[in-house]
């Protein structure tokens, strides 16, 4: 193997390790910050009760954190299968696929939990709801499809561009907001949620720019 090729492989491997470490540190830090609310859901979740665990934000976050080892195991299994088949880069592809699911499904689940509005509310005026959102709501909306925006271009060369990521995120957000309204979940289906979800995915995509997959 040529020296330049060896250095390139080593650099990619190092970048992948750094990415995993940073993601793990981020999750651990977030859990530490919200540890007290999460502890409120422990009795219900450990007892396997739906109410108080899967139907609450705290319970969903707790289950997501508890599932982290399973996500790591799934990534390892996928990478091992790919390596055995000679598919490369096996680890990057596997981590990206598992990360997209692990980092997106819990957010979508929480969005589709019943809210406290008196019926389904549709808000189509841009920026009207944004002006009334608190910091937690804004940050939460930015994070909904952040994992998707960060990892999709790492996994799929065909989607490795900001406009395409924005289009994918906007489509997913519209589907989720429409589901909120159609299912009558007593939540506000807002165009501002779509804008924030899309913006979060776009910013996350820019953050992963150096790891984007390129066509062979």
Percent of sequence in beta strands: under 5%
Low-confidence stretches: none
Total count of helical runs of at least 4 residues: 9
What is the count of β-strands? 2
The biggest sheet, with number of strands, parallel, antiparallel or mixed sense and barrel status, is:
2 strands, parallel
User: How are strands sequenced across the largest beta sheet?
Assistant: 1-2
The dominant shape is globular
Determine Rg (CA atoms, Å): 19 Å
Structural class: mainly alpha
What is the rounded distance between the termini? 19 Å
Q: On the 0-100 scale, what is the average pLDDT?
A: 86
Order of helices and strands: HHHHHEHHHEH
Proportion of helical residues = 55-70%
Organism: Actinomadura luteofluorescens
Domain VanZ-like: 107-207
Pfam families: VanZ (PF04892)
Transmembrane segments: 16-34, 59-81, 93-115, 135-158
What does this structure look like?
The protein is mostly helical. The protein has a domain at 107-216. The protein has nine helices and two strands. It has helices at residues 3-33, 35-46, 57-66, 68-85, 90-111, 135-143, 146-155, 162-182, 191-207; strands at residues 121-123, 188-190. The protein has a two-stranded parallel sheet. Helix 5 (90-111) packs antiparallel against helix 7. The relative contact order is 0.11. The mean pLDDT is 86.
Question: What's the short story on this structure?
Answer:
Pfam families: VanZ. This protein has nine helices and two strands.
Salient structural properties:
Teicoplanin_resist-assoc; transmembrane helix; two-stranded parallel sheet; 216 residues; globular; mainly alpha; 9 helices; VanZ-like
